[in-house]
Write a structure and sequence with these properties.
Blueprint: E1 5-9, H1 13-25, E2 30-35, E3 50-51, H2 58-73, H3 75-81, E4 84-85, E5 88-92, H4 98-107, E6 112-115, E7 127-131, E8 135-136, H5 139-152, E9 156-159, E10 162-166, E11 173-177, E12 180-184, E13 186-189, H6 195-198, E14 205-216, E15 224-226, E16 232-236, E17 240-244, H7 261-274, E18 280-293, E19 300-303, E20 311-315, H8 325-338
Parallel strand pairs: 1-2, 1-13, 2-9, 5-15, 13-20
Antiparallel strand pairs: 3-8, 4-8, 5-7, 6-7, 10-11, 11-12, 14-17, 14-18, 15-16, 16-17, 19-20
Helix pairs in contact: 1-5, 1-8, 2-4, 2-8
Keywords: Oxidoreductase
Organism: Streptomyces spongiae
Protein name: FAD-binding oxidoreductase
Length: about 350
């Protein structure tokens, strides 16, 4: 094969799906996916995997609903991802934008309805977008299955540590993998929390992710996000519930992560207040990881400063990329394949 060479650094769910999309679309491409050590400390290894269609931001709604629609029509993707359809609830202080609900109906017909306070189960004090066709996946399992197919169709998978990224406008892009210089026509950094170290000064930051799996005695709610308090959760293993809140811990070292007791207390307090009948006990175990944040947040292809059209990032989901990854990877692959301008 003598086609262009594309390098993707980072074999989490985002990087793996992007490399797979590229290779599926053009088998002549030489696509190399570089894994990184300690990948389980990134978001893919620990993500709760909530997938739903509704998002307040129109772009994120389009990506999330398109991802879910593709999952639901593909028996293969459902099996690879371990998709479980449980429904979901998005809790708001005010009613959802009618135009957002109309767009959601076009992408996922008959799935979503907007409920006033008191109309949705468990959440008497909130406006709620309730979705029938939503649930959760296993991002780790999905990544592993897509990675195996990527290799089956001729993609190159390399283990190693990426360092010393070098790019000049209009020139070949290169990086070191365990000390060996590797060159590409186009490169994408999908390295999650390791991205800021590879691109210092590009306004990418690491952000702590933390949640707990709690024992509960009451009826468990469907997967939910409470936009008022930040609380999110879904049913967990056994008679448990996965619960968490966004952290404000930035610039953390992804190789040296520790639980934040204040986040555990805040999670428990909010869950007791939002779901008083849940019967929450203490956390069974606590999960800590990190991901990459940038503004505006969301998983999408971004050009890097001063690198022309050859070096990009595909990150920025802050732990919530699983619900948009399929569609975001398709959009990113299309832009790379057709050399379309990529908005900053």
């Amino acid at each position: 094969m003598n086609g262009p060479r594309v390098g993707v650094a980072g074999a989490g769910i985002a990087g793996t799906l992007l490399a797979w999309r590229l290779k599926l679309a053009d088998r002549s491409l030489r696509v190399e996916l570089v894994d990184t050590p300690s990948a389980e400390r990134g978001a893919t290894g620990v993500s709760g995997g909530l997938v739903r269609g509704y998002e307040p931001d129109p772009l994120q709604l389009d990506l999330a609903a398109s991802t879910l629609a593709e999952l639901r029509v593909s028996r293969l993707l459902r099996a690879w991802s371990g998709y479980q359809e449980t429904g979901s609830a998005y809790l708001r202080a005010d009613p959802a934008d009618p135009s957002a609900m109309e767009h959601l109906e076009r992408l996922l017909p008959g799935s979503a309805r907007a409920c006033a306070p008191g109309e949705a189960p468990f959440v008497a004090a909130r406006h709620t977008v309730v979705e029938r066709h939503a649930g959760f996946i296993s991002p780790r399992r999905f990544r592993d299955e897509v990675l195996a197919d990527f290799v089956r169709i001729g993609g190159d998978f390399v283990h190693g540590t990426v360092d010393a990224v070098h790019a000049e406008p209009g020139a070949v892009v290169s990086w070191l993998v365990d000390g060996e210089r590797r060159c590409y026509d186009r490169c994408v950094l999908a390295a999650g929390p390791w991205t800021p170290a590879l691109l210092p000064g590009d306004e990418y930051r690491t952000k702590l992710i933390q949640y707990g799996v709690y024992d509960a005695t009451g009826t468990l709610p469907a997967p939910f996000v409470d936009a008022v308090t930040g609380l999110y959760g879904r049913p967990g293993p056994g008679n448990g519930v996965l619960l968490g809140v966004p952290s404000d811990a930035y610039d953390v070292d992804p190789t040296n992560l520790r639980p934040v007791p204040a986040l555990l207390r805040r999670t428990s307090d909010l869950a007791t207040r939002v779901f008083p009948e849940l019967g929450l006990a203490g956390p069974r175990h606590v999960v800590v990881a990190a991901d990459c944040y940038t503004a505006p947040p969301g998983l999408r292809l971004r050009p890097t400063a001063g690198a022309g059209t050859n070096l990009f990032t595909f990150t920025g989901g802050s732990g919530g990329a699983a619900k948009t990854a399929l569609a975001a990877a398709r959009h990113a692959a299309d832009r790379l394949l057709h050399q379309s301008p990529v908005p900053a």
